[in-house]
Amino acid sequence: MIVIGWARHADIAVVTIDNPPVNAGSHAVRSGLVAALAEIATQPEIKGVILIGAGKTFIGGSDIREFGQPLADPQLPAVIDAIEALPIPVAAAIRGAALGGGYELALGCDLRVADEKAVVGLPEVSLGLVPGAGGTQRLPRLTGVPVAIDLILSARRISAPEAQSLSMIDVVSTDDLLEDTISALRRLAGKRRIADMPVPAFDPAEAKAAYDKAIARAKGRPAAQQAAQLILSASEKPFREALAEERAVFQAIRISPEAFAYRHLFFAERDAARLDTAAASGSKISRIAVIGAGTMGAGIAHAFLSSGYHVILIERDEPSLTAGEARIAGLREQDFKRGRISEAARQAQAHALTAIAALDAAKDADLVIEAVFEDMAVKRDLLARLGSIVSRETIVATNTSYLDIDAMAEGFPQLKRLLGLHFFSPAHVMKLLEIVRASATSDETLATALSVAKRLGKQPVVAKNAYGFIGNRIYAAYRRHAEFLIQDGATPEAVDRAMTGFGMAMGPFAVADLSALDIAWRMRKAQAATRDPSARYVDIPDRLCEAGRLGRKTGAGYYDYSSGKAQADPAVGAFIAASRQAAGITPRTIGDEEICARCLGAMVNEVALLFAEGVARKPSDIDVAMVHGYGFPRWTGGPVWWSANLPDDDLKSVLAQVAAAEGPLFRAGDVDALISALKQ
Ligand code: NAI
């Protein structure tokens, strides 16, 4: 296969990059480019060169198969050197995406012309890397240092019009990209190397503000820190010196533990969105019925409307329907006010919504999602009624958080077309979508659900129908262990601080207060009769609920919110002290390290149990679920990757601490088997 070809258009050489599916900048692409440029250099009648991608894109990024391997020559900087050394101007004609190494290649050119729908950007930091082929040095010469810091540290993809306003591209083509690039190239007098341009002067205070903001947003991770330093170097050091520094940092960071963790997730996310059986193709879905327009139903409906689906919103009565419609309108208005959608999109979304208080309306849907109360009797009755309303082709999904989908489906005839679609709150924001396979769900149905997830921009993870599926079950083990910690001597604030220090988006007690304590309380009460009385049980949350402290919604939970902010509350301390006394526990000081070790160990142990039961298809799916749905820090690779990369002795000690705290009924998972499955 020829990856790079070139042809003459009068006195212009057009070099085509043809490396499907996304024209990744592989070794073959790099060496092909160097060879083509060398040939072109021998032909004096050629006055200019255009680099263009075959198919839908320019260069989508570097070749991920080369990630983590030693890089074979020629490397990307050598290709860019060849472009800059050519005495005639070179233009990048950008269609689709020019990202990472693809955009760095474009920055090596004298001119950048992009199709109006193209996106450009340097997202390396999101993979734990820094741009390594001049991106940190050339971009600030176009945009200025403060903007370059924002762009590179946020890893944002920039649309062509915005990229033009930031000088990242020179021309936006609204017609024929190649023709427009040829015209723009002819207008260029000669070489216009970014390397020869000065870095625009900037206000150090502005750069410092951009730096502080971007570093805080990137949670101070090493890749962000290093990238920011390199961008600052652009204004402080000669170009070649700073370029060499960038390359050295890139070579070191690409084999750092964080870069491997990010790469693990990159592949894990792709795997999680794929079905093992290639046979199933799925069916076409365009009309969605959402039943129940409460917190979840409204968010789910809004997510579908935002992705261009038609939604039929169904409620049990008119007042609930009106309230649900108002919720959706509120989300739409918020998107509009924040500039996320245009006036046309806002109107289109409003037109695509039909709201009705009659279940029969579900008959017109290709996919029905129920988000009614979390109550087995209510959901069972609903499914039984739906069975005689929807067509044989319709897929029916439940958004249940915990309930047994097989048991729910007893009166439903089309079992092959029934599954769980477990969205997370807020449903239009959270990326994770657990796709729950009930015992009779067909591959076809699963394939359809995966393609719907893709169109919604969600990250799917397939789970088996089991209590709490993947995420909620692991989170429950984490939360239970966090409660043990406060009974043993830690405060809720200390636990939250230690876990956010580890990188969790929020601590477990702050999360409990946010999502309200009464949901878990109801569940504990329902399970009370079957609970083993000899198992360790912490009654603190029950006492908080009895005292009306249900979390943020009541102004108090583990924290007091009366001042508008979460504050430690001595009243909670009193509940904790009483619980310790009743359990005969003498509190001791527990450091952050032990808090983290035990919380994470409890999660990993539950992961091992759940994996052995076949609830998740592969360990990497669990990492994806925890990162996308539960605020687990991405740079650790997820709980399984994290545990697999701990030294053996540390992991053993972490698990031993969990076992000791959990008491005699502790069920140890086979963590070794989990880790070896991850490595397969
Ligand atoms: P919610 O109480 O806010 O909304 C439920 C809605 O369903 C109400 O508007 C109610 O009028 C409507 N409804 C009840 N019975 C109905 C029927 N027979 N026909 C039509 N409408 C009916 O509840 P929420 O929080 O939205 O939860 C809904 C489902 O989503 C539950 O199964 C819950 O477990 C699940 N879920 C909730 C999450 C959360 O964070 N709140 C997260 C993920 C899943």
Automatic annotation (TrEMBL):
It is found in: Peroxisome. It catalyses: a (3S)-3-hydroxyacyl-CoA + NAD(+) = a 3-oxoacyl-CoA + NADH + H(+). It holds the Pfam family 3HCDH_N. One of its GO terms (biological process) is fatty acid beta-oxidation. Keywords: Fatty acid metabolism, Isomerase, Lipid degradation, Lipid metabolism, Lyase, Multifunctional enzyme, NAD, Oxidoreductase, Peroxisome. Residues 288-465 form the 3-hydroxyacyl-CoA dehydrogenase NAD binding domain. Pathway: Lipid metabolism; fatty acid beta-oxidation. InterPro entries: 3-OHacyl-CoA_DH_NAD-bd (IPR006176), 3HC_DH_C (IPR006108), 6-PGluconate_DH-like_C_sf (IPR008927), ClpP/crotonase-like_dom_sf (IPR029045), Enoyl-CoA_hydra/iso (IPR001753), NAD(P)-bd_dom_sf (IPR036291). Residues 468-561 form the 3-hydroxyacyl-CoA dehydrogenase C-terminal domain. Its main location: other. It comes from the Bacteria. GO terms for molecular function: (3S)-3-hydroxyacyl-CoA dehydrogenase (NAD+) activity; enoyl-CoA hydratase activity; isomerase activity; NAD+ binding. This is NAD(P)-binding domain-containing protein. It comes from Mesorhizobium zhangyense.
